[in-house]
Design brief:
The chain is α+β, with helices and mostly antiparallel strands. Helices cover 36% and strands 10% of the residues.
């Protein structure tokens, strides 16, 4: 999913109100392939399956079997996480799900400079 890749690459530009909402409760990074447990805590798929405890590490509730629908709702929510566009003089708050189309509206030289700064450094 392209928007997940955008979120990973542009984590530094996620607006503060959305910054920690989708962090994994185990690795504390943006949840990759997110799962939401019955208690509402969010985990990366890999972190959750590697975790050997039966209790949520955040609130110590019993982890019930995960429901696939919860996972889907978290992924859908991630499309609405807003990235503050880092291109010079823009700084719009753009939902991650539509960031690529926003990004493609900028001249190529600005996109290349942003690519070097964000994705290479």
């Amino acid at each position: 999913m392209a928007f997940i890749e955008d979120l990973q690459n542009f984590q530094a530009f996620i607006i503060p109100e959305h910054k920690n909402r989708y962090n994994c409760c185990i690795c504390f990074e943006l949840a990759i392939d997110p799962f939401k447990a019955n208690c509402g805590c969010i985990y990366c798929r890999n972190c959750l399956f590697a975790y050997e405890g039966a209790l949520c590490p955040t609130n110590q509730c019993h982890l019930e079997p995960l429901v696939h629908e919860d996972c889907i709702s978290v992924k859908a929510d991630l499309k609405n996480v807003k990235i503050r566009c880092p291109i010079d003089n823009c700084h719009k708050d753009v939902p991650c799900g539509s960031y690529r189309s926003h990004f493609m509206n900028w001249p190529e030289f600005l996109r290349e400079r942003l690519y070097r700064v964000v994705l290479v450094d």
